[in-house]
Design brief:
This protein is α/β, with parallel strands linked by helices. Helix content is 37%, strand content 25%.
Length: 385
């Protein structure tokens, strides 16, 4: 079994893959095109499956120490009526861990600091990836050439490596929604850890962090590429009259803190996550809509499964076949479920459809809701050591 790998992409999935590979004894170089890893982003909810992956990578305790458990909250109407309550204690009892809220930048920083600085090749873009002989893949990064026995493509939804491997694949498509999000500048007095509010073709939600600040997001049904001269003012206009604490969250936010991205996804599933000695991971393999909060968790699952497969199998080829067989069905099923959740949730705009959805949610027993969540959160990682 070889022991050199290049990971293309220094996001959450790429860093997690590098940590996993190093834990099983591989030498790793992470190629990241950003000139500075400044740990940006809004917030993230880590479900039990993502937390378990982080523990297997050796960073779970550090992540949990700076996260906040999401125990109270649920889904509401714009008027404030509850459609469903979240019982975080029951969920933790069922899966063994709570959902945790953490700033994305903090998670990224903890992963990055788990790697030696010399592992990271910052400000360098992978221009070419090609198999040059038996067992060797060459990555061209401008004037820098890296030869390795494995390449892990974790270069995101717009993956250049994926387009090289699957030139006929249609690539990412617009998921019919655009999302604006931010972290409040200061702590906000909130009664719940987590909330979603569904209106007609719109959603507003928040998660609370350990320091009392909160991440909020607003999802709107709009044409791709829609942007606002003053995003915060536009959100105040659109969500005027929605229940507390939505106005307070917007008022506690600086205008330049608002991030705005269209929701894109790989709607056409890839036929394989591996080609030769190249493996796709995270959004490069299965970019999904955020409606189940599983994007980062699935990337973390990928990282642990890939590393465990390489540790267990006699050849890289056998390990990659195992990785594909284990990860592709599960991650693509989660992606389908996330898409369906969006269509039945925030994207509904007809008043009758919204009313029927709301009635169904109010009548759903809490135990049934927990069982639905278990399908995604109940994943148990393979052991790396």
């Amino acid at each position: 079994m070889g022991n050199t790998a290049v990971v293309v992409g220094g996001g959450i999935g790429g860093l997690a893959a590098a940590i996993g590979l190093r834990r099983i004894g591989w030498q790793v170089t992470v190629v990241e095109r950003a000139a500075v890893l400044d740990d940006v982003g809004a917030g993230i909810s880590l479900a039990a499956n993502g937390l378990r992956a982080l523990y297997e990578l050796g960073v779970g305790a550090a992540v949990r120490a700076v996260s906040r458990g999401q125990y109270t909250g649920g889904t509401r109407t714009p008027e404030g009526r509850w459609l469903a309550r979240m019982d975080g204690v029951a969920l933790e009892k069922a899966v063994g861990m709570p959902i945790m809220g953490i700033p994305r930048s903090t998670l990224h920083q903890l992963l990055r600091e788990s790697l030696p600085a010399e592992v990271l090749l910052i400000g360098s873009e992978a221009d070419s990836v090609q198999q040059i002989g038996p067992g060797i893949v060459r990555v061209g990064c401008g004037d820098t050439i890296l030869d390795a026995e494995l390449v892990v493509a974790a270069d995101g939804i717009g993956s250049k490596v994926r387009s090289l491997l699957f030139p006929s694949h249609p690539g990412p498509v617009y998921g019919r929604s655009t999302v604006l999000r931010a972290i409040t500048e200061q702590a906000v007095e909130l009664r719940t850890d987590f909330e979603l509010t569904w209106g007609q073709g719109a959603e507003f939600g928040h998660i609370t962090f350990q320091d009392g600040r909160a991440e909020w997001h607003a999802v709107l049904n709009l044409p791709a590429g829609t942007r606002f001269a003053d995003p915060l003012a536009e959100l105040r206009r659109r969500f005027h009259g929605w229940h507390d604490p939505i106005p307070a969250l917007l008022n506690a936010t600086q205008p330049d803190a608002v991030l705005h991205h269209d929701v894109n996804e790989l709607r056409t599933p890839l036929p394989s996550y591996t080609v030769g000695r190249i493996a796709l991971l995270g959004d490069a393999a299965h970019a999904m809509t955020p409606n189940l909060g599983q994007g980062a968790c699935q990337a973390l699952e990928d990282a642990v499964t890939l590393s465990a497969s390489l540790a267990a199998e006699p050849t890289v080829e056998a390990a990659l076949a195992r990785y594909d067989a284990e990860r592709r069905p599960r991650s693509q099923a989660v992606a389908r479920a996330a898409r369906q959740a969006g269509r039945m949730g925030q994207q509904l705009s007809h008043p009758l459809a919204v009313a029927l959805r709301n009635t169904a949610m109010r009548l759903t027993p809490s135990g049934a809701a927990v069982r639905m969540i278990l399908r995604h959160h109940g994943w148990v990682p393979p052991r790396l050591r």
